[in-house]
Amino acid sequence: MRVPEHIGIIPDGNRRWALSNNMTKDMGYKHGINPGLDVFKLCQKENIKEVTFYGFTVDNTKRPTEQKLAFTQACIDSVMLLTKEDCEILVLGNTESSAFPKELLPFATRQKFGKGGIKVNFLIHYGWEWDLNLLKEADTSKKHIIPYLHSKDISRIDLIIRWGGRRRLSGFLPAQSVYADFYVIDNYWPDFKSKDFYDALNWYNEQDVTLGG
Questions:
Q1: Would you tell me which of 22, 120, 130, 164 could form a disulfide with 13, CB atoms 3.0–4.6 Å apart?
Q2: Residue ranges per structural domain of the chain
Q3: Nearest of 69, 74, 76, 149 to residue 106 by alpha carbon
Q4: pLDDT tens readout for residues 100-138
Q5: How open is the CA angle 70-74-77, to the nearest 5 degrees?
Q6: What CATH code would you report for 6-205?
Q7: Using CA atoms, how far apart are residues 69 and 58, in angstroms rounded to an integer?
């Protein structure tokens, strides 16, 4: 089987899962922590070199306060959980914003844990415009914006898997996703099963990957 070197994970459907289980929306996020660990271990098992998890975006911070607090804490807990594993962690996001959790500031540069090995990236308070350095400059006298990719230490993605049935990238690493194959799972992220992961790998194995050639 042809295995992707880098997999992107969009873990969507936490709020819808919570509502379907008679919970408030904010309660869904903590149920998405263990699936993340499961995916990590499966990537490790299949010798995948890099995996990127979509944590939360700049736009997500527009949600009600209780939801913001819940998904921020879930992201913190997810990162800390993987510090107990053999991996190399990078947290990418706008660290200058007050919405970026201070607990994750040490991970803004890649940190090795255990024996190292698989690279694990978390997008936390991430925005595609910020990543591509397209935000408007406060000083309007500047006529040019110097090109800069904040995510330059993250490699090109081979396969993106999105849970929750939505068929959109939602601003997920636009530079690295340029040639990524995109697989959608209708089940909500907290209902993750290993079959989801292997169905995606089997589907990817059947794709004609040419990278434009």
A1: 164
A2: 6-205
A3: 76
A4: 999 999 999 999 999 999 999 999 999 999 999 886 554
A5: 140
A6: 3.40.1180.10
A7: 14
